[in-house]
Amino acid sequence: MKYRRKIILLLLLLLLLWILHRQHRFSTKKLQGTYRCWSVDTQSKELKLSDWFFPSKSMNLTNTSWSAPIVWEGTFDEEVLEKYYAKHKITVGLTVFAVGRYIDHYLKKFISSADMFFMAGHKVIIYVLIDDLSRMPWIQLSRLRTIKVFEIKREKRWQDISMMRMKTISEHVVNHIQYEVDFLFCMDVDQIFIGKYGLETLGESVAQLHAYWYKEDPKEVPYERNESSEAYIPIGMGDFYYHAAVFGGTPIQVLDIARECLKGIMNDKKNSIEAVWHDESHLNKYFFLHKPTKLLSPEYCWDYGRMNGLYYPNIKLYWAVKDYKNLRVIT
């Protein structure tokens, strides 16, 4: 009799809990939502594009057909971005390849200028991927800046150096970078920062408009036109021509970019095909299939040498003087 009462009471309790559950539907997701509401955590408020991006303030093209912003100087509110990221502490990674004669000619200027202008005031890890550790220059960095140096395999041809960086990027992202940074940029070493390269550039998937081709019709840009190549883009298709000297995003997104480009490069190699602009051709194919969530204007990667008098007053990064005849000699 005593045990029967206990069983009846237990059954009644279970029935009561079931009724309450049916009435209130108090799921785990609702519990989490309620917690957020109770905590009134204004710091976790998501930053919307309209909070900081003002396309009407520019005479240039500022939006793509898939509604991704094209960032120009004057289209963003730096103060809003700084306030947001002051509450959401981030670390930004920057990978740079330095091989052969490029080490002595460009690396120190690139790192020194990045130290001054790249994500100023925020934590940055510069990953130097170099084929001769003994030639790594000593550079005193500012606070919040860290440099990590990794030795990489030396390739026989400069074309292979260019294409195999996708393999190296993917390996290092998997091994350690993805656990150390919130955003990651991959850049060529033969460039120099001269203006603030800031928070407005951060995004899930970031592509750089090529300074030579950003005003051209997609029919005129140098996409890969060999139908047998993995990088092939048919005439009449495509959106913009992107520069492989700068691309970025979240580590996982950069990993996907690098892996897909590498897959295309290796498939072409099996068929004795080499895309017209090597890894850049494959990067353009990737962004043709997977639209970037943010585009950077040519101000973020400019060439003073070949732009026929065109001038923008707010250049952030520019191409250093090229000397391919001497620098692309593999020693």
TrEMBL record:
Binding site residues for Mn(2+): 188, 190
The organism's place on the tree of life at top rank: Eukaryota
Residue numbers annotated as active site: 280 (nucleophile)
InterPro entries in alphabetical order: Glyco_trans_6, Nucleotide-diphossugar_trans
Membrane topology: Single-pass type II membrane protein
Major localization class: membrane
Signal peptide positions (record): 1-22
Protein's UniProt keywords contain Glycosyltransferase: yes
Cofactor binding remark: Binds 1 Mn(2+) ion per subunit.
Residues the record lists as binding UDP-N-acetyl-alpha-D-galactosamine: 97-99, 102, 188-190
SUPFAM superfamilies: Nucleotide-diphospho-sugar transferases
One Pfam family this sequence matches: Glyco_transf_6
Record carries keyword Signal: yes
Binding of an alpha-L-fucosyl-(1->2)-beta-D-galactosyl derivative, residues: 210, 280, 303
Compartments where found: Membrane
GO function terms (MF aspect): hexosyltransferase activity; metal ion binding
GO CC terms: membrane
Cofactor(s) this protein requires: Mn(2+)
Gene Ontology biological-process annotations: carbohydrate metabolic process
Family to which this protein belongs: Belongs to the glycosyltransferase 6 family.
Name of protein: N-acetyllactosaminide alpha-1,3-galactosyltransferase-like
Species per Swiss-Prot/TrEMBL record: Canis lupus familiaris
Gene (UniProt): LOC100682875
